[in-house]
Amino acid sequence: MNLTSHQILKTIKRVIGDHESFVPLHEPTFGGNEWIYVKECIDEGWVSSVGSYVDRFERELAEYIGVKHAVAVVNGTAALHISLLLAGVKSKEEVLIPSISFVATANAVTYCGAVPHFIEVSTETLGIDPNLLEQYLNDISYRKDGQTINRITGRIIRAVVPMHTFGHPVDMEPLLEVCQRYGLVCIEDAAESLGSTYKNQHAGSMGLLGAISFNGNKVTTTGGGGAIVTNNTEIARKAKHLTTTAKLPHKWAFIHDEVGYNYRMPNLNAALGCAQLEQIDTFVNKKRALYKKYVQEFKSVEGVLLFEEKTGVRSNCWLNALILDQPNKLLLDEVLELTNSNGLMTRPVWTPLHLLPMYQDMPSMPLMRTEQLQYQIINIPSSPSLTGGR
């Protein structure tokens, strides 16, 4: 029997139950001290980029992830931008990134004046495929004076940015080995993966730097926000300096010693984040329970499966993803139309970055998997509050 959009709709409803109102893809959950902490900021007047909650949020986030330092910023894109700068990425150098990612991954590279270079993903993780990457680098690059040079463009390849898609960690161990062999800096795009681990190491903690997002649709939210995480004390000091307009400490004078950025997270947002971090284990556990229900129910549906975490990985299951057995744009569009018109928000994966008009001329390896997956992936409702069913 051929898979139909109605089968998919029916299976989703069997997991989450019937809802009178529209079901978002992922909505925030506020059930803790959010209002108490935010009200304290308002009552005391500390609502901008200075305040006790910013320091507390950075300290508690670093402890949760298992790194020495966290620097809170206004969003995940800002975190990526500064991370790339601090990793030494310079104008006209190349940065290897997956084409399956939110556009911020490529935009942050472009902000540095650097060149995004698109890499194929693994069907096992939906992130950068370390084996294909090494084969590709062996074909298109050479080493000179400790640098990896693209023999086609003549540009230095400076860094790799693995993105942990939908909260599922990339296979980091072989990827880090490739980075070491080719002298590449690893900056983790962990925007979606707070609460995810790879071989008991938290996503974002394995590269030189990691970038986290606290957008309203993430596992925990600060309304809008992000963070740079690292074990390097000097990099953390520099990150805080650059994101605070590079202003030197002084009682009254405004002295800035380099071009900086007004990227610091406001105290009001950090207060919200502190309350959310107190609940993160509950959020992740509920999301994982929902994920397991989806896995079980979709096993009986031919032609589609739920993307599952791999051995050695514990995903936060940020967004559950259906994978059609074959690329099928017609069926994919039918599913999206039927589910959304029936009050269940679903979405396709992002348009592959190498197909966007501003990035079509950027270097890339062959991306057949990526181009197929754009017509196979469907994200389905994944909020931690969806524990119903029938």
From TrEMBL:
Q: Which family does it belong to?
A: Belongs to the DegT/DnrJ/EryC1 family.
* Swiss-Prot/TrEMBL cofactor(s): pyridoxal 5'-phosphate
Highest rank taxon of the organism: Bacteria
Classification via SUPFAM superfamilies: PLP-dependent transferases (SSF53383)
Tell me if Transferase is a UniProt keyword of this record: yes
Tell me the GO BP annotations in alphabetical order.
Answer: polysaccharide biosynthetic process
Active site: which residues?
Answer: 218 (proton acceptor)
Membrane-spanning parts: none
Give a single Pfam family match.
DegT_DnrJ_EryC1
The molecular function terms of the Gene Ontology recorded here are: pyridoxal phosphate binding; transaminase activity
What protein does this entry describe?
Perosamine synthetase
Instruction: List UniProt keywords, sorted A-Z.
Output: Aminotransferase, Pyridoxal phosphate, Transferase
- Where, per the database record, does this protein carry N6-(pyridoxal phosphate)lysine? 218
Recorded hits in NCBIfam families, A to Z, give: NHT_00031
